[in-house]
Amino acid sequence: MWGRSYGFGNSIFPQEIASNGVSLLAAPISLVCRKGDTRSLAATQEVVARLVRAGEVNLSAEISCGPDIKAVVTVHTEYDGLMFYHIELTPRGETNLDELSLEIPLKGTVASYIQKYVMMNQDWGQQATSALPGDEGVVWVSPFLPNVWIGDPSEGLLWFSESANNWHGGSLPLKIVRQGDVVKFVVSFIKPSPGIAKRRESMLWVMPSIP
User: Fold this and answer.
1) Model pTM?
2) Which of 96, 93, 94 is nearest to 36 (CA)?
3) CATH number of 4-207
4) For 14-25, what is each residue's pLDDT tens digit?
């Protein structure tokens, strides 16, 4: 796909992403669930190919957030690197989910800059680019933004979402955490509100250079 390659392994989320031969991920992308003090990665069941043809591939899988919550995840991938995810959660009886977060661990060597689309009003916004702080720990937090790009002058990864409808991620659902050689971008769909919102939609897009 235009100089990009993806490795899913046995997961519905990418375990490897490379752009122009440069590996972007420090570890697999994961969906994190937390109930009370128990925090775990969502476990993927068998991944099924729903559509395979020139220019696009659709995959689906069931995942579990512990014994009480199941989910169906579908991903639509296109030739230009876009991956569109749809996640539908189904609880078994009454239960609480205290956290549901997408975690994208990038290599620190490719995570030099952040570019975000800042909404100025309901109709329009503008791009803003800055260097990522080199400190350890949480280096950036933000209210919902429609897209966030992280990368270096040559490669990068863009996450975007059409809206924050049905999110329960609090006032600052987006953050970037630096842990040694890893820069982790975290999108919190649920945190810390109890209960379950039925639908989550999110996107990933590998970009060859700063847009």
Assistant:
1) 0.85
2) 96
3) 2.70.98.10
4) 999 999 899 999
